[in-house]
Amino acid sequence: MGVKNQIKYMRVKKRITQNQMAKDLGVTRQTIVAIENNYYNPSLELALKIAKYFEMNVENIFTLE
């Protein structure tokens, strides 16, 4: 069982680069890459920031499989 996310899909759809998203959220680009590739699960705080960034609910971005 793992956590999957739609971050890359949402980011590409809105034409946002990894660098821009990282800068906007106050993290490194490597953090965004790791989350998108499911190598790293963000903290609750970062997950909430990401949801707010995309104006979505956390449940619509992150799913437990």
Description:
The protein is mainly alpha-helical and 65 residues long. It contains 5 helices and 2 strands. It has helices spanning 7-13, 18-25, 29-36, 44-53, 58-61, and strands at residues 3-5, 62-64. It has a two-stranded antiparallel sheet with strand order 1-2. Helix 2 (18-25) crosses helix 3. The protein is globular.
What are the defining features of this structure?
65 residues, mainly alpha, two-stranded antiparallel ribbon
Short description:
With 65 residues, this protein is mainly α. It has helices at 7-13, 18-25, 29-36, 44-53, 58-61; strands at residues 3-5, 62-64.
What are the SSEs and their pairings?
Elements: E1 3-5, H1 7-13, H2 18-25, H3 29-36, H4 44-53, H5 58-61, E2 62-64
Antiparallel strand pairs: 1-2
Strand content: 5-15%
Gap between N and C termini, in Å? Answer: 5 Å
Helix content bin = 55-70%
Tally of helical runs: 5
Major sheet attributes: 2 strands, antiparallel
Helix-and-strand structural type: mainly alpha
Provide the gyration radius in Å. Answer: 11 Å
Provide the residue-averaged pLDDT. 96
What sequence of helices (H) and strands (E) makes up the elements?
Answer: EHHHHHE
Q: Name the shape in a single word.
A: globular
Order of neighbouring strands in the sheet with most strands: 1-2
Oligomer: single chain
Write down how many β-strands occur, each being a DSSP E stretch of 2 or more residues: 2
Spans where pLDDT lies below 50 across 5 or more residues = none
